[in-house]
């Protein structure tokens, strides 16, 4: 997430870290580089100018204590101002305690609106809500089919009508939710490739018909200033309540994320960082600011792990580690859990203290797919008893998984080394108690 921006910030702040004190010159030099990085990242010019002026005013005259370096002090100032720029605090959805809550989702075509609707329904369902997905995008080919498929996958009802009238679909969905004891209506509206009068007329009409508690504008974070401009156009017409940034796991420069809150004046409520239906996080300005400055985001990492990790499984795994009975079945479970948590690069970016070269390395998520394929090609006996994996069995596994014998040998060797390490750890742990 925003790895390029993070890398550049880290390099700039590293230059000033070793200097004895803050001076007008090193502050000016640092801010000049920061300004260039922000503009290269497609951050709005006015937003960049105001950000640099604020940081400069706070940095000048600051005395560096003996316990901290100029780089640390500037990092703190940058962090505080990034948090302000991103909105200061998390802003939750407005959900009615009783009756039906109506959420209207708007945005340009290709921004990820329909997928977000499914992700939001999945998240709200996990919180005990009873959502209804409404297919009011009647123009994009397969949009309705996509929403129906998402609804089926997350076991959530989808409302549509055969006559394909978006206004009528939106209106009647409310009555359908009330009649079926569903408490949250999520309306997926149509988008266009660009903002036009026809699009705005339809979303304005739907807003008046359903009177939503929340209107969320979904924006592709990889589109930079174009996204900010379209957000402003939508906001001027329908006054939405919050922003959703999608494709944050992609090669986003960061301009959209850092500009949109300041330009539109509305909070970012969610970020979407993967293709999985559970790859949706509530937005916390301080957490993203920490990631941008290369300080990681342990809280989000722990929350993501807790959401995908079963407590009973964790206890069973701990017992297997203690008795050194961890096998390929357990390994496969852990791989599937990690895959559900998101891309490896996004997980690495959340860990504080990880070297920049490791954060910026091209982490291949297909490596996990290959490992999963190899283990899946093993028999139950082979998974539970890796010692029986002789040459013939390994050759069969390689052919069955579409990998090479070298891939299988490498995995078996790494697994054996891991078992030896666990065994040594257990012996040390046991002796330390007496």
Give an overview of the whole structure:
With 434 residues, the chain is α/β, with parallel strands linked by helices. The protein folds into three domains: 3-86, SRP54, nucleotide-binding domain (Four Helix Bundle (Hemerythrin (Met), subunit A)), CATH 1.20.120; 101-295, P-loop containing nucleotide triphosphate hydrolases (Rossmann fold, 3-Layer(aba) Sandwich); 303-431, Orthogonal Bundle (434 Repressor (Amino-terminal Domain)), CATH 1.10.260. The protein has helices at residues 3-17, 24-40, 45-59, 70-86, 113-126, 143-153, 166-179, 197-210, 225-238, 255-264, 285-292, 298-308, 311-322, 328-341, 344-349, 356-359, 366-376, 380-384, 391-401, 405-431; strands at residues 101-106, 131-136, 158-159, 184-189, 214-220, 242-246, 268-272, 280-282. An eight-stranded mixed β-sheet has the order 3-2-4-1-5-6-7-8, with helices on both faces. The two termini are 46 Å apart. The model is unreliable at 430-434 (pLDDT under 50).
| Biggest sheet architecture | 8 strands, mixed
Fourth CATH level, the homologous superfamily of the largest domain? P-loop containing nucleotide triphosphate hydrolases
Structural class by SSE content? alpha/beta
Number of domains: 3
Q: Measured on Cα atoms, how large is the radius of gyration?
A: 25 Å
> Which percent bin holds the helix content?
55-70%
The general outline is flat
Number of helices: 20
Q: Give the number of DSSP strands.
A: 8
Instruction: Measure the end-to-end span.
Output: 46 Å
What is the CATH domain class of the largest domain?
A: Alpha Beta
Strand content: 5-15%
Average of pLDDT? 81
CATH architecture of the largest domain: 3-Layer(aba) Sandwich
| SSE pattern | HHHHEHEHEHEHEHEHEEHHHHHHHHHH
Write the CATH fold name of the largest domain: Rossmann fold
The parts where pLDDT drops under 50 for at least 5 residues are 430-434
Strand order of the largest sheet: 3-2-4-1-5-6-7-8
């Amino acid at each position: 997430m925003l790895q390029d921006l993070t890398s550049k910030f880290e390099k700039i702040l590293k230059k000033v870290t070793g200097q004895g004190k803050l001076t007008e010159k090193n502050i000016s030099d640092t801010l000049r580089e920061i300004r260039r990085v922000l503009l290269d990242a497609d951050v709005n010019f006015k937003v960049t100018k105001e950000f640099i002026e604020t940081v400069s005013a706070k940095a000048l005259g600051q005395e560096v204590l003996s316990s901290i370096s100029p780089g640390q002090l500037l990092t703190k100032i940058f962090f505080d101002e990034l948090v302000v720029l991103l909105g200061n605090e998390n802003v939750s959805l407005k959900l009615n305690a009783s009756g039906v809550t109506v959420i209207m989702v708007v945005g340009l075509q290709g921004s990820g609106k329909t997928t977000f609707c499914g992700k939001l329904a999945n998240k709200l369902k996990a919180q005990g809500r009873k959502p209804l997905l409404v297919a009011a995008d009647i123009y994009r080919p397969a949009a309705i089919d996509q929403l129906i498929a998402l609804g089926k996958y997350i076991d959530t009802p989808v409302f549509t009508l055969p006559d394909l009238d978006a206004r009528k679909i939106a209106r009647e969905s409310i009555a359908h939710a009330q009649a079926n004891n569903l408490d949250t209506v999520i309306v997926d509206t149509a988008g266009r490739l660009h903002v036009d009068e026809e699009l705005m007329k339809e979303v304005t009409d739907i807003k008046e018909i359903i009177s939503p508690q929340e209107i969320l504008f979904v924006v592709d974070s990889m589109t930079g200033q174009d996204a900010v401009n379209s957000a402003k156009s939508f906001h001027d017409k329908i006054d939405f309540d919050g922003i959703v940034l999608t494709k944050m796991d992609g090669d986003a420069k960061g301009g959209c994320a850092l500009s949109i809150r300041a330009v539109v004046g509305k909070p970012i409520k969610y970020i979407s960082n993967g293709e999985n239906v559970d790859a949706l996080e509530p937005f916390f300005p301080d957490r993203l600011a920490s990631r941008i400055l290369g300080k990681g985001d342990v809280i989000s990492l722990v929350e993501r792990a807790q959401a995908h990790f079963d407590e009973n499984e964790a206890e069973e795994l701990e017992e297997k580690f203690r008795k050194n009975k961890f096998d390929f079945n357990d390994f496969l479970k852990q791989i599937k859990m990690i895959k559900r948590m998101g891309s490896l690069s996004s997980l690495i970016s959340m860990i504080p203290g990880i070297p920049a070269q490791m954060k910026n390395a091209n982490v291949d998520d297909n490596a996990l797919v290959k490992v999963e394929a190899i283990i899946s090609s093993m028999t139950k006996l082979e998974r539970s008893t890796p010692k029986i994996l002789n040459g013939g069995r390994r050759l069969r596994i390689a052919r069955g998984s579409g990998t090479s014998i070298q891939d299988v040998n490498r995995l078996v060797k790494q697994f054996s080394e891991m078992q030896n390490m666990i065994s040594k750890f257990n012996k040390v742990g046991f002796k330390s108690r007496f």
